[in-house]
Amino acid sequence: MQDVLKVLDERGLVKQMTHQQPLIQQLEESTTFYVGFDATAESLHVGHLLPIMVMTHFRQAGHRPIALVGGGTTMIGDPSGKTEMRKMLDEETIAANAKAIGGQVKDILANVQGPKFEMVNNADWLLKLNYVDILREVGVHFSVNRMLTYDCFKTRMERGLSFIEFNYMILQSYDFLTLFRQYDCRLQVGGDDQWSNIISGVDLIRRLEQGEAFGLTVPLLETADGKKMGKTEAGAVWLDSRLTTPYDFFQFWRNTHDQDVKRFLKMYTLLPVEKIDAATEVEGQQINAAKELLAFEVTKLVHGEAEAVKARQAARALFAGGVQQGAIPTTKIPQQRLNAGINIIDLLLECQLVASKSEARRIIKQGGLYVNGERVEDIELSVDDSWLEDGKIAIRKGKKVHHRVLAE
Q: What superfamily in CATH does domain 4-218 come from?
């Protein structure tokens, strides 16, 4: 079988794993694995895409995925990575969220070939548990002293850790045990903030079933400018088209920082690494073609090829004028002036996008100005002819104010 761990490592999708050599041997044959998604919102967001990408690679390599929606664990709330207790949701909301999230994962997994995948909801077994029985069977194997050394609890001790949250690790471990018993599931995959929960499940299976199980985590990402991946000024970038339109989803990826393009192409697309290397071994503004490739591939994976094509066409039309010719204000600048370079603040004034230099500086400092889809952070930026794409430069102020500069 394909060495899926090598593929994942080459793409930067592995942070930690348990028992590396035995896991390599286990994956020499078709192995059932699972990824869990709690139903805390009505949609997954971009941050959830990494474990889903790991699922697609495992499935392509011949392994059997289980997508677990946490209809039961969501009622408790995971303290991992949180400074405060999660908001308690009612059962009806959790059930609706679980149904929507399950559909999103199913649609993405359907885009790749491989063994049949299972969709499960841990509410089906967790909500039927007898409290005393679970304490006797499972709770007895958890050391409170050891649990308090895990980061997911240590970071919460100062603000206070509720008893209900303290049970989350036990329930997630029980999920792994249940899937091991029912499906011979041998591997759990999750974000790196789930490491302590995952290894606790591995240990529980060893203690109760004398079975061999494994864990693997994916990195928690920040962009090149230090921001949490998937977060923008407007909030999270959702996979649900009602919350984030396919066009805005496309533009999020199209606006990727230059330094992140190659990394994100490897992580968030199924394109061959050789093609990614070729697309990103360019200089200057040529990287924009790779950004568009990234945006198209991720949008296609999440929303389908038809929506990806429409989003790409709309983005190109907005930049070039296209069908919106005349709708985008335009300023013509002599080619010689562009060759010499124009300070970004002076250019904004000339385009009548700001009323004063102080307004221009404030917009830039607040992160509200983009040139050719790239956020401007330097008030001393010189815009010259190297910024021209097909004789045009696209400027955006905020979310909706677009402008074009034409060289003449």
A: HUPs (3.40.50.620)
pLDDT range class, residue 324, cuts 50, 70, 90:
very low
- Asked about 397 being catalytic, the answer comes back as no
DSSP string, 337-398: HHHH-EEHHHHHHHTTS-SSHHHHHHHHHTT-EEETTEE---TT-EE-GGG-BTTEEEEEET
Domain span(s) for CATH 3.40.50.620 in the chain: 4-218
Residue 90 annotated to the active site: no
Residue 224 per-residue DSSP state: T
**Is 40 an active-site residue?**
yes
Active site residue 193: yes
Which listed residue (31, 40, 269, 299) is catalytic? 40
Q: In CATH, which superfamily holds the domain spanning 330-407? A: RNA-binding S4 domain (3.10.290.10)
Query: Pick the catalytic residue: 93, 232, 245, 285?
Result: 232
| Catalytic status, residue 116 | no
pLDDT band for position 326 (cuts 50, 70, 90) = very low
The CATH superfamily of 232-324 is: Tyrosyl-Transfer RNA Synthetase (1.10.240.10)
Residue position matching structure tokens 């599931």? 185
Query: Rounded distance, CA 74 to CA 70, Å?
Result: 6
Residues spanned by CATH 3.10.290.10 within the chain? 330-407
> Of 31, 32, 38, 45, which one is the catalytic site residue?
45
- Of 56, 172, 188, 217, which residue is the catalytic one? 172
Q: Is the pLDDT of residue 153 over 90?
A: no
- List 19, 82, 141, 207, catalytic entry: 82
Q: Does the annotation count 228 as an active-site position? A: yes
CA atoms of 33 and 382, how far apart (whole Å): 52
Tell me if residue 63 is catalytic: no
**What is the model's pTM?**
0.74
- Residue 232 known to be catalytic: yes
